[in-house]
Amino acid sequence: MTATNSDIEKAAGVLRAGGLVVFPTETVYGLGANAEDRAAVSRIFEVKGRPPSHPLIVHIAGVEHLGDWVENVPATARLLAEHFWPGPLTLVLRRGRRVPFEATGGLETVAVRVPDHPLALALLATFGGGVTAPSANRFGSVSPTTADHVRAELGDAVDFVLDGSPCQVGVESTIVDVTSDVPAVLRPGGVTREDLEAVLGYPLEVPSASRVRVPGQHPSHYAPRARVVLVDPEQVIAEAELARERGHRVGVFLPPPFADAPVKAHAVVAVPRSMAAYARGLYGFLRELDQRGCDLIIASLPPEEGLGLAIANRLRRAAGPRPSASNIPAPRP
Ligand code: AMP
Ligand code: MG
């Protein structure tokens, strides 16, 4: 089911009335509130169970509105915004006065982006203001990439769900801090580091510890119910079968070179060869293995280039503190 014009009108009305609207973006589904309505923004944190110190992204309808939400727009920020918006790039800038501290987790900076999705853009244009929206899932769990994922997880806790098709990118936006002269990638995502570097004309650091607080960068985040264990690609089958012998209900992320190999496991996901397809499917795969009752997922990291950087980042978080190959937990009694 895809939303109609009247659904967009209804959703914009819900935002104006201080309600919460779930809407699709090209990255993941967002849980949106009027960015200028402190009470509505606070409700996002309640519904998600997210600590209020974790800042949200303000979604706007176009690059021409950027100046309304930030204190000033340095040349680098303008260059990146004009090149990548609408798209999966979030820019962190000095907070404009319109943005309440509820939305920034008390920070003097604000994260802004223009999503590349027709329904999201229609909602933003019809609503006319900024919409703060984190991913529409409970804090720490897997982000939703379909409206069904959202309904399964948040159900009645939200006021309106705009139904779009599955998200095309599938992982969250790339976050770049452009508050200083040296841009810093705070979170890898849908716009690749290589694409950013091509536009900037110089190499970027992708630091492991960021200069500002970056939720989503906790040791454990984006996590399914099943425990995720990362091993070398060549070890995936052997580790999965060993865990199965020990009594686990094992789900396997089978890397492309082994796609046709037989593996004794409860559920198998053949990892797509294309990184774009892998990113698009990643959260759905994790949810599927949960639904099939797996208590353990054996996976490996893709090469960390292009979208592989974001996929590897999410898999590491899903695995919590990265376990070694032999660190398979004892099965639950
Ligand atoms: P989520 O949509 O749940 O992935 O969360 C929104 C993301 O935006 C988080 O990962 C935050 O780190 C990021 N973010 C929002 N505001 C800021 C800010 N002022 N500085 C750094 N990161 C931010
Ligand atoms: Mg999230």
General description of the model:
With 333 residues, this protein is an alpha/beta fold. The protein folds into 2 domains: 5-200, DHBP synthase, CATH 3.90.870; 227-318, 3-Layer(aba) Sandwich (Rossmann fold). Helices cover 32% and strands 15% of the residues. It contains 11 helices and 13 strands. The strands form 2 sheets. Strands 7-1-2-6-3-5-4-8-9 form a 9-stranded mixed beta sheet, with helices on both faces. Strands 10-13-11-12 form a 4-stranded parallel beta sheet, with helices on both faces. The longest helix has 17 residues, at 275-291. The radius of gyration is 20 Å and the shape is globular. The N and C termini lie far apart (41 Å). The relative contact order is 0.14. Residues 209-213 and 322-327 have low confidence and may be disordered. Adenosine monophosphate binds at residues 55-57, 92, 104, 107, 109-111, 134-135, 172, 175, 186-187, 212, 214-216.
Topology summary:
Layout: H1 5-16, E1 21-23, E2 30-34, H2 38-48, E3 57-59, H3 66-69, H4 75-84, E4 89-94, H5 101-104, E5 109-113, H6 118-127, E6 131-132, H7 147-154, E7 160-161, E8 174-177, E9 184-187, H8 193-200, E10 227-230, H9 236-245, E11 250-254, E12 267-270, H10 275-291, E13 296-299, H11 308-318
Parallel strand pairs: 1-7, 3-5, 4-8, 10-13, 11-12, 11-13
Antiparallel strand pairs: 1-2, 2-6, 3-6, 4-5, 8-9
Helix pairs in contact: 1-6
The chain binds adenosine monophosphate and magnesium ion (MG).
